[in-house]
Every structure is written in structure tokens, then in C-alpha cells.
Amino acid sequence: MIKTPAILSLLSLGLLCATGAHAGEGSSCCATMASGKSVATSMTMAADKDASTCPAKPTMKDASSCASMAAGKDITIPASEIIPDTILTREAQSQLSPDAVLSILMDGNKEYIADNLTVRNNTQRVRDAALGQYPMAVVLSCLDSRVPVEDVFHRGIGDLFVARVAGNIVNEDILGSMEFACKVSGSKLIVVLGHEHCGAIRSAIQGVELGNITALLSKIQPAVQEAKSSFKGDASASNPKFVQTVCDDNVLLAVQQIRDQSPILKQMEDDGEIKIVGGIYHLESGQVELLD
Ligand SMILES: [Zn+2]
Description:
Elements (H helix, E strand, L loop, with lengths): L7 H11 L4 E2 L2 H9 L4 E2 L2 H9 L7 H9 L3 E2 L1 E2 L13 H5 L3 H16 L8 H8 L7 E5 L7 H4 L7 E5 L7 H13 L4 E7 L3 H8 L6 H6 L2 H10 L9 H22 L1 H8 L4 E7 L6 E4 L1
Parallel strand pairs: 5-6, 5-7, 7-8
Antiparallel strand pairs: 1-3, 2-4, 8-9
The structure holds zinc ion (ZN).
């Protein structure tokens, strides 16, 4: 039931296999990597041969070569190896406290860091979610492709609202989305998630001006000025420590903006109905570090 973040695309293959779609030559190897365990197959001899070539610890290179072999044979991942999660219901969502949701997400992040992402019964979940959604949290993330939010917290379909914009900045539309998530749809937690080595943060420090990017980066300037007011040393985009300081300040300012600019969310937080937190995603470890 284990795969690595590096072979996320293989998870899809595993799920296709699980739902009866056709995989192929070498697919037993791929499914084994996707699920972390052996798979049943109608082509036992071929499976044994393929499995013998399957590395114990798959890499991106292994995954791509395996995926390229897929074509033509049926394989099955035992149901016992697929998380039989059900879509959150209104009742289940209402019983979650903000702290419980935060614990679920942070525990999920530990599973992500430990390469313990698991095959989910996604096609069933897609059908189950068709008539409604009751996500437990809303995450405001940067646009960055290296931050796969659902995977980072090991959550699936129907679990999270995810708002993404370069630099994870807050504006009226983001606030409206958060108010919908929490006040209308019952989410219990807001996470503003910045990340290491953020290009938007670096560009804001550099004062980049280009088309609509100029207006976007202007919303990060308060964090740049905040960081400059206290940072000792080279306050430029070429200093990773300064970039990270701006990144942290940008997250903390976003959390404060949510409270200041949304009376609805502020009231919900004061009443203990929701929690608003900021965090940083570390690109090299996959860890989410909560900011105070
Ligand atoms: Zn970014």
C-alpha cells in the first residue's frame, strides 16, 4: 500500500487496474510499486518475470519505464490493499473539531513524508461525491507545481477545498471562496500554505513588473517590507534566508488579512467553529511546518 511521491502518476495506473481497466506488459511491476505489495494477475508467469525486475525502492526512472510497458493485460489489486474511504458526509464533517482536522492533516503529512501514500478507491469516491461535498478544510496554496496539496496531506476526493494562486496571496475572491468553504460548506480549518524556494516571493523582492504579474506581486510587497524592517544581512532575492523570511511573513500576513478582512471568518474563529493557521511546505523533505 506504499508508493513514493516520485511516482504519483503510477498511482493512477494502480487505480485503473483496481477498477478493471487494462494494464499490460510489466504492469504487475508497476502495480506492485503503486501499491507497495504484490498484485494478483491473470498472467502469473509474466507477472513473476516482471516482478523480478521490479526494484524494491522504485525511482522516477523505474516508474517511467514501467509505465511505458503498460498495454494489454488485466491485473487486480486486492480490495484489502485499497483504502475504502468514504466521502465525508455532513454528519461526519459536523463531528470534526478544528483541532481534529488539523491533526488529520498533519498526520497525513507524516504519511506523505514516509512514502506511505495509499491507493484509494477513487472511482467509487468520485461517484459518491457527485451529489454533494463536505470537505474538512480549505487550503490556500501557491500555484507551484511542486506542492501537490492533496498528496501533501494524504487526502483524497471530497476532503479538501484548495485555492491556488501564485504567492498564496489573499484577495476578495479568495476570501469569498474561504467564506463559502467554512460558512456555507462547513469546513473547520483554513491553512495558508507557503513553500520554500517560491518564485513569486523572489520576483516580488526583485520588483519584477510584467503584465498582470505586476499587480499580483504588489500583494506580496507588504511581506517584503515587513521582512526588510527586521532582517539583518543581505535583503535580496539572492539570499535564500531573506527569501524564506519574506515567505514566512507573507503567510503570516495572509492569516492576519483573513481575520481583518473577513468578519465572517473572524467570528467563526472567535466562536471556535474554525481555526486559521499558516504553514510552510519544505520542498526537499515534504514536511509542512506550522508557523506560530
Ligand atoms: Zn510559490
